[in-house]
Structure formats: structure tokens, C-alpha cells
Amino acid sequence: MPPPRKPRLAVFKFASCDGCQLSVLDCEDELLAIAGAVDIADFREASRAVLEGPYDLSLVEGSVTTEHDAARIKEVRAQSKALVTIGACATSGGIQALKNFADVEEYRRVVYARPDYISSLATSTAIADHVKVDFELRGCPISKFQLLEAVGAFLQGRAPNLPNESVCIECKRRGNVCVMVAHGTPCLGPVTQAGCGAICPAFTRGCYGCFGPQATPNTSSLIVELRRLGMAPIAVQRLFRTFNANAPAFKAASEAATAEASAP
Amino acid sequence: MTERTIAVDYLARVEGEGALKVRIQDDRVEDVQLKIFEPPRFFEAFLRGRSYTEAPDISARICGICPVAYQMSSCHAMERALGMTVAGPIRELRRLLYCGEWIESHVLHIYLLHAPDFLGYPDAIQMAKDYPEAVQHGLALKKVGNSLMTLLGGREIHPINVRIGGFYRAPTVQELRAFRPELEGALKLAEETVRFAADLDFPDIEEDYEFVSLRHETEYPLNEGDLVSSRGVKVPQDHWEDVFEEVQVPHSNALQSVRKGGGSYLVGPLARYAINRDRLTPRAAQLARSVGLPDVVKNPYRSVIVRAVEVVFAIEEALRIIDGYHRPERSYVEPPPFTQARTGAAATEAPRGVLYHRYKIAAGGLIEHAKIVAPTSQNQKRIEDDLRHLVERSLSLDEATLTDACERAIRNHDPCISCATHFLKLDMVRQ
Asked: Are A154 and A82 in contact (CB under 8 A)?
């Protein structure tokens, strides 16, 4: 009797820096074990060998920024039993979603050498804006420990056990001094999803929100505190507009700051 | 009259999305295109209006494989604009962080991306079935590079500890000393890696490259030095635009660089080694000699050996820095305010070669204009030249063999297509 077929894992890339899929190769201690547990069916950054779909688990990195990619993600979905998005680009549109806020008229006035050579949509959007997503791994970049937990969970047919509390909780657990209370350093920890290990406060800098908003973020209270620390409204806007600028809670917070900045 | 087309729709084992098209008419290569279809992300456009302090973290997101390079080039460019000098232990810590990135990036390429070509496997995982020790050594060595970046930068991809003027937090002497045993173990693995690479079989090919890299008075270049070429260029590192220029081609979402009034050139390990081999650390220099590496390596396939030699250098340099380290009183030099508009530019040595940044900053500190030239875009035209020569010599090969050979020729230069693509500034094709 032939052995049962191993689950097929695929890794797909959309607009991104490649860092999140590099996290797979950065699992140095686990990579060969993963490769033993699954058939790596399509992972172009790592292999020339490509197996046909359908795939049991597809990891999707990057955001949708072209018409071609908007069609391609539908094909990926159709080929995938489970689809997990990895990283801020895939879960919120990434840093390139800053173009969603750009003044198109201003851009139009800018003269480019040969704009006709390029094709691109006006927006950068999350994968979940286009197809059903079974689980999202946050972060710019993702945590490789969270990645291992998610892949393991899907192989075992259970839900991934990952926190959705704020960075503050992780920060306390790590025993960090609160950078905002002790040093007056602006910090997005109170509204940002845990998962990174609260590394920025551990290095005495404020969290910059690369894991995106936590489940119930109180951004309006935080904005009051950031303003009290002396941040100008436009600086508050920039703080919410980085790697998860297009995540709804951060988008709303940046728009609130914009409104305050432009108020008479 | 016969026409052949060699096409690879999606290059594997490179970072990012690229394709290759070669058109052959009778016995002549009509056209070679290394196509970059990675979607443009427009970093230079949205850096405008951001604070100069944000450039290191934002520009790092151009590339998850070499984020430190972007952090370093942007910091140096801003510091030049402000007339700041960062010296002593903070400067050393920057070199140390860069060593971590070189180790991680080079070892990734040597074992996981490049070696399978020489040994005939589609990937390192298949290769591990027959060469378990080599792949395990590679993973162990790569992990040391990543651990060094995590120790100093907080995490290996997009480290969080770099700021204009230095670092948010400087490590203690004890924290760095505790890492010494791991680096000593890594040095042995790196020495084996040089021998492993040198024992591979290389096609007997030489290319006539114009090499371009930084050159420093005393150091193998990472953060500082003049821009130097093997054909006589020598300018300060912020004068890249005096000598080189970018051109846009229709088949690619990346701009290509050429020497002004000249042609293609090559940046990266082959160029650094050709120009700076006299600055290598002792063990790295001795190993290069012992495996018979010539003073100038013109065979692109042998770049795998040069990368391995540079890994030995990076580990020796990291050990030297750790041994001489004392913790600075402050982890950064306080930048003065931008009281007037200023421009600053700098180039540093990313694992794949020269990475140039130039920023124009308005009074008050907001970025008005950004220009970023990645190593892969500088090499793109030169890679097309390699391909042209390869196809011209190999016309008798069958389609599949020639296609494989072309893919290999591209991987020799470890192209990072994510890096090469960010630049196209335009954004305006509408839905």
C-alpha cells in the first residue's frame, strides 16, 4: 500500500519585499522537518520544482496592486484548501498602500519618464479584500514562531493558538519599562496586536505598529495621550500611516489626526 | 531563416518576480531581456512628505533580504545632509550589524539558492537528501548571521534598533562577548564553506567586467569609502550621479544603470573582491589564496567562492569588533535640527553591491525628494550582457539545456528583484 500523500504546501508572492516568505527559510532549525512533513509544491524563491495544485495550505505574501494580481489571487484561492496570508502587505496592503492616500491630481502633475511602460492599480489592498482568507498572520515582518504555530495547526487540523491582545500585555510580561510613561516616548503598543515580543520597547523605542491594530483598539484615547506628549496632529497622522496604514482602525485614526491638522 | 525564443516565465531561486526572454535569429542573438515584472511599489514617491527620521525604517521595506543596507545608506545620506559624523563604538556597531546581514544573505545564496545549480538539484531541500551535511552547515551558519542581527537589531528581518545618529539601544559588553562562541563555531563552518564552494565544478568562462565598489583607506568596505571602478573611476561616495545614470527600458519595471558615456558594469562580491582583496581580514585572505582564487575573478560562476570568502571576512570582522567594544555613553549622536533645506547622499555596500540613496530635505526635516539606486538595477544590464554571451556560445544546445544555462547565469549574480523594482516613480495607470 503506498504511503498516504503528504499535504501540499505552496507559497505565493504578490507586491512585497520577500521578507515574510524569507521567514520560512529563516526557520533554520525546523526547515528540514517542515520539508519532511509536507510536499513543498510551489515556492519559487526556494525551488525550481513546481507541483500542480490543488494545495492543502497556501501561504500568501504581498498585496494586490495590479489587475493581473487581482485575477491571480482568485486562481490561487481556487487551488487552495486553506489560505493563510502572511504579513502586513497581505493582511492590510502594506507600506505601498500609502498610495491609497495620495492626491491623484498631484501625482498626475508629476512628470515621469515613460509612464506608459508601467501598469499598476491606483490602490494597494489586502488579500482578504479579494478572496476568503482562512487565517491572517500579522507583522512587518511576521514572527517565524507564529508562522510555525500556524503551519503546525493547519497540518493538525486545529485552529492556530495565537494572541490577539495588545503589545502592552507582551511588554509587561517581558518586564520592560513603559517607554511612554517613563520617558514620554510616543508608542503604539496600546493599540497594536501582540506577536513581535514587544521588541521596540525592549530597545527603548516606541512601538511603531507593524503588527497592525489589535481587536479592540482605543485609538482615540491614545491620540489624546500622543497630543499631550507634544506630538503635532500631522506627526500623529504619520505614526498611524506606515506598514498597516490601510488597516481600518489605523486608517480611521490617521484620518482623525488629518482632520485635526486641517481644522482652522 | 529560423527564429528561436528562449523564455523563462518565472525565475526561481531569486528574490522577487522576474522572467527572461532571449530572441535568436539564425545564429545571431537579436535581443536579451531580463524582465522584471515585480509590481512597482513607488517608495520614492511616498517617501516625500515623511520625516527624515522615518527613511531608515520605511526604505528597509524595499527588501526583506537586505534591510540593513537600506537602513545604513539612508542614515549615512541624512547624516551627510546634516554634516554629522558618527565615530567610535557606534560606527563599529553599524559595521557589526552589517556583518550579520552579509553572513545571512550570502549563506542563503551559497547553500539554498546557488549550490543546487552546481550539484544538479531543483532546491536545497532535495539536495539535502544527498548532501545533508552541507545543507545543515549552511542552515547553521545562516542562523548565526540572523542571531547577530537579532542581538543587535531586535529581529533579523527589518531590525528595529537603527536610527539616524546610531541606535536606540547599544548592547552591553557582556551581551556581545556572550555571542563570541557562536561566531567562533561559525568561523569553522565558514572556512569549510570556502572549501565546499571551491570544490564545485565551474564552466570555463571569463567575462570582461567593469567592476564598481566602495574602497576605504584601511577597511574592506561596508559603510564608507570612495566609489571606485576597475577602469579608473574614483569619486567620493556621494557623487554616484556624476559617473552613473539610470535609464528606463520598456520590458522592465526597474530602471537600469549605466556608466555615463559607457556601458554596463558590475557591483557586488566579484567587484568588491577585485578592488579590495588587499583589505580582507587575514584568515579570509589566506583561504582565498589556499583555494587558488585569482586576484581578479572574472568567472561569474566562481562568485560562490568569493561570497564564501566574504562570509569568513564578516565573521572575523565581527569578532574583532566584539573584542574591541566598549559601550558608548549614548547610543546615538543627537542630530541637529534641519534649519534649512539640504541634500545628502551616500552609498554603502549591500550584500549584492553598491546601494545609493540621495535625499533632499526641506527646512523642518520633511523629505522633499528621494532617489534610491539598488545593486540589482545596476547589475541588470550587465546580467543581460552575460546572457547574450552565453547564448552566443551555446546555440547548438537544445532548448531545455540552454534555458537551464540561462537561469544559472542569472543566479550567479544573486539578483534581488524586489530591490530592483521599487524605483519606478510613476503610479498613474488607472483602474
From this structure: yes
Domain with CATH 3.40.50.700 in chain A: 8-156
Of A17, A66, A124, the CB nearest to B63: A17
> Distance (Å, rounded) from C-alpha A198 to C-alpha A190?
11
CA distance B289 to B120: 27
The pLDDT score that the predictor gives to residue B12 is: 72
Contact call for A102 and B16, based on CB within 8 A: no
Contact status of A22 with chain B (Cβ, < 8 Å):
yes
CB B92 within 8 A of CB B219: no
Q: Tell me which fold the domain B43-421 belongs to.
A: Cytochrome-c3 Hydrogenase; chain B (1.10.645)
Question: For the ranges A5-19, A180-194, B399-413, which has the lowest average pLDDT?
Answer: B399-413
Query: Can you give the pLDDT at residue B430?
Result: 26
Using a CB–CB cutoff of 8 Å, tell me whether B57 touches chain A. Answer: yes
Can you tell me the ipTM of this complex? 0.94
Give the total residue count for chain A: 264
Residue from the list B142, B157, B428 with its beta carbon closest to the beta carbon of A107: B428
- Contact map slice: A 142-181 vs B, CB within 8 A: none
Residue range B137-168, pLDDT digits in tens: 999 999 999 999 999 999 999 999 999 999 99
Fold assignment, A8-156 = Rossmann fold (3.40.50)
Any chain B CB within 8 A of the CB of A25? yes
Q: Give the separation between CA B116 and CA B244, rounded to whole angstroms.
A: 35
CA distance B318 to B92: 9
